[in-house]
Amino acid sequence: MNSVKIMVLIYIVLSSSCQNSNTAFVKEYMTNYRSIQNKKIKFPRSLVPYSDRISSDTSWTTGGKIIFIGNVECNTCILDLKKIEAFTAQNSEIAKTSKIIYIGYGSPTEYFDYQYKLNKFSFTILIDKKSEFLSVNELQDYNKPTLLLDDSDKLISIGSPLKPGALQNAYKHLITGQ
């Protein structure tokens, strides 16, 4: 029983310290990415909205952004779309203040199209058939990066906030101030 109390106490201490040090965590975490920190991210014209409902919508081009990047020819990557949708639903305060964007490189498969129609994802999906987004921004060495951008499209953080933990808490703090 004492060990349970100790574990609860450790959890409470760690939880409160994480909330107070989210900004410090991102700064420390980003030291691993000095070459791209504060880099202005470019959006090549080759990015094409996947859905007819947003083909004329350019609202994704303004404001802060969380950009998830994956291969639309890879079934495992396609299943990440469901995780992004769940993250968006669970973090409505983030979705209200930042654009959630998935940039898929490659040519969408039938499975991708099926998942898209089945799930009616609420976030913007852009297709990058030429894989220019990664190369133009010199990000091809990063494995499935997720990028947090400020209002001027400067890189604040890299890494996925999909799993609960310090990085997800840091994203929430940076975007909402909470």
What report would you give on this structure?
- The chain is α/β, with parallel strands linked by helices.
- Helices cover 43% and strands 17% of the residues.
- The chain has 7 helices and 6 strands, in the order H-H-E-E-H-H-E-H-E-H-E-E-H.
- The chain has a 6-stranded mixed beta sheet with strand order 1-4-3-2-5-6.
- Residues 1-23 have low confidence and may be disordered.
Structural class: alpha/beta
Q: H/E series, N to C? A: HHEEHHEHEHEEH
Helix content: 40-55%
The largest beta-sheet arranges its strands as: 1-4-3-2-5-6
CATH architecture: 3-Layer(aba) Sandwich
Terminal-residue CA separation: 33 Å
Instruction: State the total count of DSSP E strands.
Output: 6
Low-confidence stretches: 1-23
DSSP summary: helix tally: 7
Which percent range describes the beta-strand content? Answer: 15-25%
CATH fold category name: Glutaredoxin
Average predicted confidence as pLDDT: 76
Question: How much is the radius of gyration in Å?
Answer: 18 Å
Bulk shape: globular
Biggest sheet details: 6 strands, mixed
What name goes with the CATH superfamily? Answer: Glutaredoxin
CATH C-level category: Alpha Beta
Count of discrete structural domains: 1
Quick structural summary:
With 178 residues, this protein is α/β, with parallel strands linked by helices.
Give keywords:
178 residues, alpha/beta, Glutaredoxin, six-stranded mixed sheet, 7 helices, 6 strands, 43% helix, disordered N terminus
Topology:
Blueprint: H1 2-20, H2 22-30, E1 48-49, E2 64-71, H3 75-90, H4 92-97, E3 98-105, H5 110-119, E4 124-128, H6 132-136, E5 146-149, E6 155-158, H7 166-176
Parallel strand pairs: 2-3, 3-4
Antiparallel strand pairs: 1-4, 2-5, 5-6
Helix pairs in contact: 2-7, 3-5
